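User: Predict the complex.
Assistant: Input components as received:
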Amino acid sequence: MAPGPQRTPPPTIELPQGFRATGLHCGLKSDGAFDLGLLLAEQPVAAAAIFTQNALQGAHIPVCRQHLAQSGGLVQAILVNSRNANCATGQRGIDDARRCCHELAQRLGCKEEHVLMASTGPIGAPLPADKILQQLEPLVSQATSQGGMDFANAIMTTDTHPKAATATNPSTAARVTGFTKGSGMIHPDMATMLGFLLTDAAAEGDLQTQLQDLADRSFHRATVDGDTSPNDSLFVLASATHSAPITQCRSELLTVATDLARQLAADGEGASRLITIEVRGANSEADACHVGRVIATSPLVKTAIAGRDPNWGRILSAAGRADVTFDTDKARVWVGETEVFTHGVPKPEREATASQHLVASADIVIGVDLGVGTAQADIWTCDLTADYIRINADYRT
Amino acid sequence: MAPGPQRTPPPTIELPQGFRATGLHCGLKSDGAFDLGLLLAEQPVAAAAIFTQNALQGAHIPVCRQHLAQSGGLVQAILVNSRNANCATGQRGIDDARRCCHELAQRLGCKEEHVLMASTGPIGAPLPADKILQQLEPLVSQATSQGGMDFANAIMTTDTHPKAATATNPSTAARVTGFTKGSGMIHPDMATMLGFLLTDAAAEGDLQTQLQDLADRSFHRATVDGDTSPNDSLFVLASATHSAPITQCRSELLTVATDLARQLAADGEGASRLITIEVRGANSEADACHVGRVIATSPLVKTAIAGRDPNWGRILSAAGRADVTFDTDKARVWVGETEVFTHGVPKPEREATASQHLVASADIVIGVDLGVGTAQADIWTCDLTADYIRINADYRT
């Protein structure tokens, strides 16, 4: 596999107060790696979640929705398995997910509706629920404030490294810690995006709306569109161990969510480059995001970056088909610090410099100014390499 | 390069009466291959054209629009060059295209507005118009009724073979002959789709509307969306050498256009399989087309086919994110003749048979029934192989 942009995950990661975590191997992955994780609060805490918009939904999603509705948005534990999506498994799949929640609630002495579940992996195979149930006891007993990276490891599928991030509010000392997993990037249909945000701040206001807004500015800008995988799920839990309200931690939440989203993009399947797409000069932020996503999902742009080719024509062409207002004569395209298309005029003499940026850096910037307004957005994606094909052509074999 | 689905183009192809064609090497391609083509009518004939919806447009497009408006839809000649898109070349590009039309009109003794031009290839470099102008005389003198395949060769870029098709109306003997070139398939931003339909039938009714309708049922179903490349252009010319009206040739026009569209899909860059996506049980034909296109542009579906994996989960998941009405419990998915997902239930025991279809045939069928209505559509695409990456990462190097 081509080396992706290197990120060394912290060997341990601090959890916010009031949370424990762990991971272990319950027998779903054939190589003995961790495949079952647990996030645990001391008691039911304020929570919210957003789920995929896909018409096909993993079995954990209706169960989570039901539990959140019954509990009024209180969660004590989230159980997560990898290597099996429990998706397209019909009523049996829902029964399996519910049974896992039920058994875990019994062990924790909480109500079933205070337990959520999330699954990720290949779809269509029945969930081996017995393997999961047999490991609930060690899972609960192992969970500690030091177990964050074990949890991050347990939720991985084709991710090449566990993904975690943390930030502390300097004035209140309230902490936000998050975990995520990817990693099929172009259209993450099957590569479930799971995200978990924990904070010891206290919920205040409409947590659901706050989470949606946060996702729109972070995960949804990593071409990990919440609406494209059957299992995509993002959770936030606030333990209120600190008296500081969560609204004072907006900056830390965005920092952690953005960091995780960029980790997702950087670890896209087969990726050798993290690409930040800077869209400027748009009529609206929505336009800027849309143009960025069209560029980010253009195989021709992504293969050009894989070939270290500062192909401004493909970038401009992708922007041009996004169906937003755009002035070719005022448009600009840059690669790294080098403007390779200026107000309608190509600058071929600068392309060698631009290529250098693509060759030398694992953290690429490309940008386009639409020349019509002042709105802007950044979108993150990765390049498209032959390794992506290899990984996905052989995924089930 | 992986062998694509093999199609042997006819060594010659018959043109409709009243047309001549040719191709030659004028010096744009470095390997000496044909790079300049000409379609020629005996006098100005009824014509229509549709062009890309991309905000970025090749210089030939405004020139063609202007000439068609001035002439009231009469065309005597279309000059086509490959290896240079004459796109993002500013006013100079438009002047170059206009000069080529002007010089050709002088040689033909017709008005400038009766000449159109189309360009395809990498964008951003100025058109070497002098090389083209120097070859106008031999081009005109060489054009014959036997020159169709020379024209088809001259318009190729990364196509692996020239693409032509012909059909004759059995009752009137009116003929339709078409040419096209591709071939970057996933999002054909840069791989300009050029299409040319010639008939000796007589124009009748609104030719523009007829062409749009024809494209919607043929080229626009090959994931060669007319709106995604700066240079995409489709032309129809009717010489009226036959008295039969073009409306009697609807079937032949659709046959030729569909054949060309399937050739485009089959010759997608790096393709080893032509994929026909059958969408059934939709609420509307528009829904069926949309679902088909979402499946057809899913890298995960396309890499699965490259891996000969009958991965119904990816097909269903792609359909699920198309945002159209869809009943998971009534849905069906098939690969070849084998139903691998039936009314919400996976049939893993059938996957070996389905795999056989993917291994044995170069002409793959996959299908999905949405379980909600009776509308349907077929969409054509190709698989996504490592060769696609190689071709596109190295396109300009």
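Chain A has a mean pLDDT of 90.
Let me know if you want any component modeled separately.
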